[in-house]
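Continuing from the previous page...

OK, I double-checked the sequence for Pantothenate synthetase against my notes and this is the correct one:
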Amino acid sequence: MPEIVHTKAELRARVASWKSAGQTVALVPTMGALHAGHLALVKQAGDHADRVVVSIFVNPAQFAPHEDFDRYPRTLDTDSAALSAERVDLIYAPAVEEMYPEGFITRVAPQGGPASGLESDARPHFFGGVTTVVSKLFGQVRPDVAIFGEKDWQQLQVVRRMSRDLDIDVEVVPGPTVREHDGLALSSRNRYLSPEDRAAAPALHRILTESAALIGHGAPIGVVMADAREAITKAGFTVDYVEARHALTLDPIASTHDGPIRLLVAARIGGTRLIDNVPVPRGQD
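Thanks. Re-ran it with the corrected sequence; updated structure tokens here:
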């Protein structure tokens, strides 16, 4: 079982001993409720550094008052058991008071660039909460490498930009999305799906993949995305957004000549909000 620490002081002492020995450190930030997707990121972290730290912290700063912070699963014992089968050196599981002590007033507030639109329109508070906690984790752990899943594609690009803009010396490495056999992206929130909603949920990835193939073969982006929205709605979802964006800058895109394209979607089925994204293949037309 990996060692679990709950305070910055304990964390820094362990990391300092590794650094003094010339060892490199990889961080996998999580909110717990770990699944195979998280464990794939942990395995990837072990390929990039001598030591692996997994943080488990349900970050209140990225939840709006009406969202699911209180019911978000907290499963530290189960998570620790799952990580015991992986090469993990330390689990950092701070309390809210440790991360945001009394009197805490400073926030990171990304504006523009990859933080524009999409999740920012649907959840205006979100990236401020993410970048604030990630910048704190980077400062506390001092990792050489941090692994972020591609399922949260916009988040990945926002964290990359934050690290560059704030001169944080960490390599942000993407980890491929892990999916169920029917294409549904693994997510801690999938456990909220009713059996009926779970059966319908794979339509999200299927429609997105079909749309990406059409665009890759030269179909007009605007037409394809309008059809995708209609198809996702007919599959039982309420769509927050489904858009084609430049894969790295997240700028709106009108043509396949504008750069690499990523299709991104967020939609609700039942009481569960799902996100996904796929690349548009190039050179097929």
